[in-house]
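ok trying this again, last paste got cut off
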Amino acid sequence: MKKILFICHGNICRSPMAEFVMKDLVEKAGLSHQFEIASAATSREELGNSVYPPARKKLAEHGISCKGKTARQLTNGDYDAYDLLIYMDEENRRGIYQICGGDYANKIHRLLDFTAHPRDVADPWYTGDFDATWQDVEEGCRALLEQMRKP
């Protein structure tokens, strides 16, 4: 079982989008039984809140539901519980290091570092551009899945 935790600041936009896009990709590939996929926040700001409505809408446009998802905060124990902790931008990496105390097992990676164009995932909270975020998340998740399927 491969365990992946996607992480962003509030766990209401980018990381839940990545969580549910990845779940959709592994389901369509017939690999759901091989993965455990979740998401979390580095901050406490949105704890218990649902996925932000424009993010929920963007997922729904692609036939993906995130029903029942609420924001939760990353814990130190998540570092040991997951094989990969995938973050969206440098601020998230710093937050993960603060909560988890570093990356002694090389588990922490930026999502778009798995692609041919490494960069931060566009943050729709500030840009309002959920299309750009969708494209980044989908590209990153596809590349991550491809990487994980290699022997």
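PB: full thing came through this time. The CA atoms of residues 56 and 128 lie 13 Å apart.
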